[in-house]
Design brief:
The protein is an all-alpha fold. It contains five helices and no strands. It is elongated.
Amino acid sequence: MSYPPDPNNPYGQPPAAPGYGYPQQAPPVAYGYPQQAPGYGYPPVAQPPSMPGLVMTTRVLLFVVGGVQVLLAGFLIIVAAGAKKVANEHSTGSDTAIFGNAAAGVLLVLGVVYLLAAVLSITLGAKFGKGGPATRITTIVYASIALLLGLLVLAGAVTGSAQANGAGFGVIVGVLWIAICIIWIVAMSTRDGVAWFNRPRY
């Protein structure tokens, strides 16, 4: 028959406290999981995605076309000023004055149109880095209108070349312009292009 230990017995063993004599251990870390670093709870900074190749090509073409349009606008405005000067050197009712004033007006309008188109081209190209869906849609509309104008120019150039029995510089320019417009439209309509302009921005 056993008796419980007498707490007043000097020869008895003192009751041991749980874990007495052993350092307290931290709960084990689950194998295969990294330990929590300071600042846990904040998502890592996402790396910005890179611009797709076809979208980058469209951006470069917009800058190039914008530069060419600036040059054309300057050339047309200078020629318009020259035509106006010639018209002023002749009497008001003469055929030369009438033709010079008309030519100056047409060339000036074309120069302003090219200048506005250049501003639009360069602005769209600059917005490709941070622009959203509005930039993509504006580029599609711009390219569609330019494509229709290119088809009209090409049709006129083909007709003129057929009458002159030659290839014609206008045909080459028209085909090149149409190809550029198609690249713009395709780049803005592909999955990568849509994803680029719909990506989240921080």
